Amino acid sequence: MQKHRGEQFRRAKFYSCAIDLLRNTTVPPETIFSKGDPNEILHRFSGLGREGEIFYVQVKQNKKTDRKDFMSVFPKVRK
């Protein structure tokens, strides 16, 4: 599902931070096992952006092939 342009732009700001986080993190991600697909694992990393905003990066892993795919990056929702 495509996001609105404003949401796409907001998320794109975190793309370079997301790549840096995935390459250099020493903190293990939050791991979620899929209920719908037993061969799929979702890893969620959290990081701090340049302006101090918390953001999340999601990576999907296929357990059979061990392939990891970048899914999304998004800022933490403020309450």
What is the compact description of this entry?
With 79 residues, the protein is an alpha+beta fold.
Can you put this structure into words, describing what you see?
This protein has 79 residues and is α+β, with helices and mostly antiparallel strands. Helix content is 23%, strand content 38%. The protein contains two helices and four strands; from the N terminus they run ααββββ. The chain has a four-stranded antiparallel sheet with strand order 1-2-3-4. Strand 2 and strand 3 (54-62) form a beta hairpin. The radius of gyration is 13 Å and the shape is globular. The model has no long low-confidence stretch (mean pLDDT 86).
Spatial order of the strands forming the largest sheet: 1-2-3-4
Q: What does the largest sheet look like?
A: 4 strands, antiparallel
The value of Rg in angstroms is 13 Å
Distance between the termini: 24 Å
Q: Helical percent range?
A: 10-25%
Shape: globular
In percent, how much strand structure appears in the residues? Answer: 35-45%
Count of alpha and pi helical runs:
2
Give the strand tally: 4
Secondary structure blueprint with pairings:
Layout: H1 5-12, H2 15-24, E1 30-33, E2 40-48, E3 54-62, E4 68-75
Antiparallel strand pairs: 1-2, 2-3, 3-4
Attribute tags:
4-stranded antiparallel β-sheet, 79 residues, alpha+beta
